[in-house]
Amino acid sequence: MNLRSPLQIAIDGPAASGKTTVARALARRLRVLYLDTGAMYRALAYLALRTGTDVDNGAALARLVAAQPIEVRLDQAAPLGFCITAGGQELDEAALQSKEVTAIVSAVAAHAEVRSAMVRAQRHIAQGSPVVMAGRDIGTVVLPGARVKIYLTASPEARIARRRAQLEESGVNVDARKLAEEIQERDRLDETRAVSPLAPAHDAHVIDSSDIDAAGVVEEICRLASS
Fold first, then answer.
1. What are the Cα distances from residue 56, in Å, to 15, 99, 133?
2. What's the domain range around 107?
């Protein structure tokens, strides 16, 4: 693909819509950098738990991330597609997807101070290099000038099944009913937060992946990127 400027593909969507799987596969297909920004918020939630920081105190969380930076090293050979450290500790998917982290990550991500710090870090990663970035406010806030913006969604049933499989693969046993409640609450918090609420960018292409596998979604995004 011959590009006159760095390609930026923003993929947003609710929890368990498949955006992480799609973004990782797309980045490999296009041979560009990949970043799931949700992992950065989860890393901060992990830090908050480890240090006993009040998740309702945005200023304290901002001080925490300043004192113990969250660093991302792009590595397509790594299980996540990149390596992430928080306070010098490398975190694996089991830690990032733990029940304890999942229970507080929306509260952590809701603070303006936290989102401001994360957006600066995410834009820095995207500068000067093609990137596929997945999250909840990439097309609306982080990379508003992205050439391709995708809002990936799926039915509640599909999302629950995907998250359950993801967690079980990481060694985390889950109850389907409780998982459904957690996803519903995560949606409510993401969609109603005062800062950067979850919503499609006005120029985003909405893709429902309920009945489309990741490979099919990747093909559609590649078509949009080349048009």
1. 21, 18, 27
2. 8-218
Q: How confident is the model at residue 107 (pLDDT cuts 50, 70, 90)?
A: very high
* Ramachandran class of 128: left when φ > 0, alpha when ψ lies in -120 to 50, beta otherwise: left
Residue 129's domain is classified under what CATH number?
Answer: 3.40.50.300
Domain-located, residue 48: yes
User: Sheet of 205-208: strands edge to edge?
Assistant: 33-36, 131-135, 8-12, 148-153, 205-208
Number of domains the chain contains: 1
Residue 200 lies in a domain: yes
Nearest-angstrom CA–CA distance, 223 and 227: 6
- In this predicted structure, what is the pLDDT of residue 4? 52
pLDDT band at 49 (very low <50, low <70, confident <90, very high): very high
Is the distance from CB of 132 to CB of 23 less than 8 angstroms? yes
Type of residue found at 8: Q
Backbone angles phi, psi at 134, to 5 degrees: -115, 145
pLDDT category of residue 45 using cuts at 50, 70 and 90? very high
Return the pLDDT at 79: 78
